């Protein structure tokens, strides 16, 4: 079985998630940090290796990943997060089971043409909720024994 790689369009997810969208209105950095925290938790409770991609600021593309955490990429100046997502999908789709979470239909089509698959942000949110419920149930069972 191939390793599963989930590439998340970070800003697409923030703006689709009401709680994070509100946070972003006050502070984009806080909303991004909260998303990274929640995606790290999801990676820890699923079979996915998670990568989140944000539109960057001036400068070169960067990877600010933490050891044992998810990979966080910022696109370079003049590059969009979408183009970085496409490059990652093209690079890893031949060897990994790559899925991109985005609500951008053009991006979903492009990723599919590169050999990956796509899911909506709503589907990812539902999957994350299910993983949280499953983990909570496992913890309850362990406490009983």
Would you give an account of this structure?
It is a single chain. A 6-stranded mixed sheet has the order 3-4-2-1-5-6, sandwiched between helices. The protein starts with a strand and ends with a helix. The model has no long low-confidence stretch (mean pLDDT 90). The longest helix is centred in the last third of the chain and has 24 residues, at 121-144. The protein is globular and about 55 Å long. Helix 2 packs antiparallel against helix 3. Strand 5, helix 5 and strand 6 form a beta-alpha-beta unit. The protein has helices at residues 10-16, 18-26, 28-44, 81-92, 105-113, 121-144, and strands spanning 4-9, 48-54, 62-63, 71-74, 97-101, 117-119. It has 145 residues and is an alpha/beta fold.
What's a quick, concise take on this entry?
By secondary structure, the chain is an alpha/beta fold. The protein has helices spanning 10-16, 18-26, 28-44, 81-92, 105-113, 121-144; strands at residues 4-9, 48-54, 62-63, 71-74, 97-101, 117-119.
Which key features would you list for this structure?
145 residues, alpha/beta, six-stranded mixed β-sheet, 6 helices, 54% helix, 19% strand
Tell me the structural class: alpha/beta
Shape: globular
Number of helices: 6
**How many β-strand stretches?**
6
pLDDT < 50 runs, ≥5 residues = none
- Can you write the helix and strand succession as a string? EHHHEEEHEHEH
The side-by-side strand order for the widest beta sheet comes to: 3-4-2-1-5-6
Q: Could you tell me the radius of gyration in angstroms?
A: 16 Å
Distance between the termini: 33 Å
Strand portion? 15-25%
Helicity range of the residues?
40-55%
Main sheet record? 6 strands, mixed
Mean pLDDT: 90
